[in-house]
Amino acid sequence: INCLEFSGDNKLVAAGMAESYIRVWSLEGKPLPFVLPPGPGDPSPTASSSRRLIGHSGPVYALSFSPSIATKDPTGPQANARCLLSCSADKSIRLWSLDTWTCLVVYRGHDAPVWDITWGPFGHYFLTGGQDRTARLWNSDHISALRIFAGHDNDVDCVVFHPNNAYVFTGSCDKTVRMWDINRGTAVRMFTGHTSNITSLACAPNGKILASADDAGAIILWDLASGRRMKRMRGHSKGGIWSLSFSVESTVLVSGGADGTVRVWDVLQTTSDSTASGKVIAEGGSGAKIDGTGGATGPSAAGVTGASAGKKSKGKDVVVSADQISAFPTKKSPVYKVAFTGMNLVLAGGAYMP
Questions:
Q1: Which has fewest Cβ within 10 Å: 33, 55, 56, 174?
Q2: Could you report the per-residue pLDDT of 61-97, keeping only the tens digit for each?
Q3: Cα 29 off chain centre by
Q4: Residue 149: which of 165, 134, 164 has the closest Cα?
Q5: For the chain, how far is it from start to end, CA to CA, in angstroms?
Q6: How far is CA 293 from each of CA 216, 296, 304, rounded to the nearest angstrom?
């Protein structure tokens, strides 16, 4: 599994595979709807709680469900996710129907693998980032990109929309995050301060704060009005923070990544950047990852105890900043995706590696 994505109505989860296909499951275990009538001579489709989407010719790197919300009114307007976007190493983007489980459109424009994709907050528009150092804004009705955002010195690894749909953010392994104006197609902010590759971005629902994470285990919060750094949060081991999500009130941030932990952070608490303000802990899931305290070659204290820790005494403890609210270690599963629901529950997904 390369990537995971939850739908906004919390009914579906999709996984993009290295074997070039996508599998979609019902989180409730119910049979997935299939509205396309069978053709002449075709067997009627069997009810199944999962579907496989085949079309890409390379590994699938990112997925995005169309915006949806959970609703209790069966007579009201349809609010479930109707479409799924996927991007791949085959340089293409595909739009899939979740009613017929077929590919509707193939978008081509990037001339290198496409690393990330996301729908805009109101649907219709979507954003991609790729190895060709560009991010591209698309309209689902048009076959070619509306905007090309060029300026990064390296791959654009992660992309996200501002909640007002007027700005987008791109994170790159040139260690910078850029904010772009959609209407003008120009950069309006550049955020520098990370010491490693940017692996995840999230914009707060109130539109005032941007969170960015890197593969050294650091999360930085940025004030969008001033363009300045609010604070740096530490606690994850090295290996990459692969997903960030804000609560509905924009006061709590949740993160998950390669160290096998889901961590919850207080956005509003102010702390100094010095390690003196943090505490040294020993918790987490994956002991094979390197900690983010100084480039040590040994395993972090997270998940390595007793005899195994004694074998590599060079490993350093993980310093956790004081604004961490809690940490939830998995057995050994890297966390691919974390997502706050509208009721402030957190969904977290990963691949268990026994």
A1: 33
A2: 999 999 887 777 777 777 778 899 999 999 999 999 9
A3: 24
A4: 134
A5: 15
A6: 9, 8, 16
